[in-house]
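Students often ask what a holo structure prediction actually looks like on paper. The answer is less mysterious than it sounds. You provide the chain, you provide the ligand, and the output is a string of discrete structure tokens encoding the 3D arrangement of the protein together with iron/sulfur cluster.
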Amino acid sequence: GQCIMACPVGALYEKENIKEVWRAISNPEKFVVVQTAPAVRVALGEEFGMPIGTRVTGKMVAALRRVGFDKVFDTDFGADLTIMEEGTELISRLNKGENLPLMTSCCPGWVKFVEHYYPEMIDNLSTCKSPSEMEGALIKSYFAAKMGIDPKNIVTVSIMPCVGKKFEGQREELSHEGMQDVDIVLTTRELAQMIKEAGIDFKNLPDEQFDNPFGEGTGAAVIFGATGGVAEAALRTVYEVITGNDLDNVEITAVRGVTGIKEAVIDLNGRQVKAAIAHGLSNARRLLDMIKSGERQYDFIEVMACPGGCVTGGGQPIVDAKTREKMDVRVERAKAIYEEDRHLPIRKSHKNPDITRIYEEFLGQPNSHKSHELLHTHYVKRDRF
Ligand code: SF4
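The corresponding structure tokens follow.
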């Protein structure tokens, strides 16, 4: 894995976290809710002998139900919500000319990197929590109230391609009324382990659908799993909101692929908005240094700590050296991500009906007081790892 954090202690955490989830599931007083990140569905199958780049979304949902989770939600819903909140933040910073470039905040490896090495740029980070943390906060507020369950009895589990998310889950900034938004983080590999422990025949499972109300995600959300995906998703929405025009071709190919630093310019009512995308922390450093020296100017930047983005995160199935010689795993898994996007009926976050509903019923507007209370966070300068 390429993850920069927690790797030496990853193995220790793993055993403990799987046990913790089994304990929660077997405790009748606990209502255990799981959500899965976009990149998990294009890699989990590899643990069961399926080829790299196989999409197993439906089987993954079926497996999670059989493992015993009370609700199976999609982090894609949280990703769509992130686009609404972060897109609105971008529009407001562009209008005020403040704290630009806006920097994405969904990757904990990147956020921690800024906190340690570029603390003077902390205000450039979006205040948005990551999609999984946003969704955790809504499970313990909106969903708990809807179901009449005491949020203290809800256990939120996130299945992530990432080892760094284990640290993120414990950040005290990511809690509300003394409860963590996400209680336990399992990696893709750990989920595979649980499915095996449960004796489930994964390959022969039927395809099943996520549960409501956080089961609907768009194509814009699923592409969060590959480098450039968050920028593409944000641009799809910001373009339509600012210009009022329909974006006919939603595929913004300039931001795709495994080039170290990518750039895109989008015309928003005559204003040229410049975006840059970096993946891997050495590219991130190059990008930030170019911004600091004034060599380059951007309005929006997306960074993912892992080369290729979450598809090759530190918690994903490990690919042996022989296979890696034959193919670029980042490219194969990303292909599956873009295929999933093309197959989804809705491909823009602001068109997700569940998103419209949660603003109408609960949050009001993006960046509202309630949104800030539940979906946004802050950062701290950190001296050492
Ligand atoms: Fe985790 Fe994805 Fe960031 Fe890697 S790129 S550290 S998998 S969030």
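The longest strand covers residues 271-279.
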